[in-house]
Amino acid sequence: MDARRPSARGRLRDLTARARDLSRAHPRRTGIAAVVALAVAAGAVVLLHQSGPRERPPADAAPVPAAWTRPAVAAADLAARVGVRLVRVAATGDGGLLDLRYQVIDPNLADGLHAPSTPPAIVDEASGLVLHELLMGHEHSGALKAAITYYLILENPGNWVHRGSRVTVLLGDAQVEHVLVE
Fold it and tell me: Does residue 51 sit in helix, strand or coil?
């Protein structure tokens, strides 16, 4: 007796055969299920259209603690300017958070990453929205070490920035433009 589990294709064939048998045995139930599914889909479409497009937050929604424009550098040149290499920006936490990862190349240059005059931030290039609130105020304390990857979790209220968005990343006294969000 072969105790192996059936393949996904085999399970799909079995489920398709069972559904076909049930629809033949209970044609009325199949019709009712189709009508209910159609009604649910139509209701979802109506709700989406009634809610309309999301409004952009007003310009004064979040106070900006510092001037956000910084010298633009290519991602490859970020290490020479601020001592870190950008690893990635990813939407996480069901879209409500942005995970910014960077690797320290030069700890002496990287010391300025959390300076009050140049706080880390992410700017959504489509809307200009500046995201700078760190989750629960967390930022690294202590000396940064070379070759270590650190992270910042920024709040993304309203899920404005999402996977596939282009953002500008502000770290220290530099900004890297057109970064693709994973």
Answer: helix
